[in-house]
Amino acid sequence: MTKDLVSVIIPVYKNIHFLKDSLSSVINQTYSNIEIIVVDDGSNASQQILKICNKFKKKIKIITIKRNKGVSTCLNKAIKISKGKYINWLSHDDLFCPTKIDEQVKSLKGSPDTISVTNFIIWDYEKNISKISKQQQKDFINFKYEQ
Predict the structure, then answer these.
(1) CATH 3.90.550.10 fits 6-115, yes or no
(2) SS3 assignment, position 28
(3) pLDDT tens-digit profile of 1-36?
(4) Where are the beta strands (DSSP E) in 58-111?
């Protein structure tokens, strides 16, 4: 059985030094059918971004925006070229837990009117946890997109 393709979009502007860890967290997912799109949002580090992406054996698509336009522009440009059935956004200074995409795809199967959200942990530079967010069903409303 073929797994659905998941597109992971990673906008990058500043703090490029976090990108390697973010990419590693995507590449090391238990779910393997992943397309990675990195969007350079007008940074001054295009060559550094390219070097980081090229260190990985997995093909990573890179979009370069000449002037900083913000996250929404990055996401929209990447969504236009993405091929995945599902879209996942990862900030370049964040990490995915290893089973995140696998668990989300399973939760979305057969539910076309569903979005998926996850819990998150905030930690400092020494990786001391400062906040754990636990999303609960009561926090969300049912919706159906109608055209």
Answers:
(1) yes
(2) coil
(3) 579 999 999 999 988 988 999 999 999 999 999 999
(4) 60-65, 86-89
